[in-house]
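Sample pair:
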Amino acid sequence: MVKTKVITRIAFLDYLRIFAFISVLIGHKFTSDITAAIANDKLHATPKLMLEWLMPFVHGGGAGVIVFFLVSGYIISQVLSVEQTTSFLIRRVFRIYPLYIVAVLIQIFIQNTWESLSLKTVVLQLLLLGDFFNVPYTLSGVEWTLRVEIIFYGFMAALKYAGFWDERKHFLIFVLLITIGVMSQLPAFPYGLFRGYFLIYGPFLFVGAGFWLYEQAWITVSWFFLLIIMVFVNYFYLISCYQPSWLSAQFAILGFLLFTLAYIFRFKFQSTAFILVCSDLTYSVYLFHNWMFDFVKSHLIASFTLTDSANLLSLALLFAICYLLFVTQNYRAASQ
């Protein structure tokens, strides 16, 4: 009788997922509030100092994105060790697309943008192919990370199919290093607002994979350090080429150090029901926060004149909607 490997829930990754979506949420929706508080002469120096320490971890949501990619690279490498290529791809498609499609359609419906969008545009948005056809972003731009994820899934699945998780596993690091080198020489992709983001941030998925490869003794610490160095050299070089406005940001190194620290103490983390629920909500919150929050907030202010409580109420309603979608999705998955 053949025993099937089962991937158990990894507690430290759940905590990191929660940090990632909190960083992105605060970075996208509350940066101006934090900046105003820091500049407020009537606020005590202690909370101002705490906010100043917090700012690099939430600025633009960058640290959250880095942590998100590191987590994804780690877990995808582990998943590929126990799943076949076809089943892996099918599972990833059903993990990414259903809720994403629901989010896009809800946004189009409540913002009433049907008339301004062609059917071709909507279809390309729903398929996550917009960057290849110069189609406007949806969900206020957060979809770019999903495009990076999809490309990463396909690339890693191809490596799995080619035997790099089996008889060629010790050569996998060379493929990753060569790929990073090639990416550093490619033209900017995508081409619009997030110019070069795929090439700048995508390699951090390989660093997440590197943690898992080192843990499994597939690579030595020297090769692991070389992988990390190449990714950061690529990052520093390309961000100066394509996104110079982020040259003063520290989120890449902060996200990496945070993941590394959590990894070192990974056996100290304990899962709770609350942590598991928050971790499971990260994807839905990520999809909805950057546009639903503003929509809800504007309608709360307009309809109920609750200006002082608008942020809190909007945040509560956002999480309620995301939880409802999560429960619905889990119910449908369990019933199939």
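The first helix runs from residue 11 to 29.
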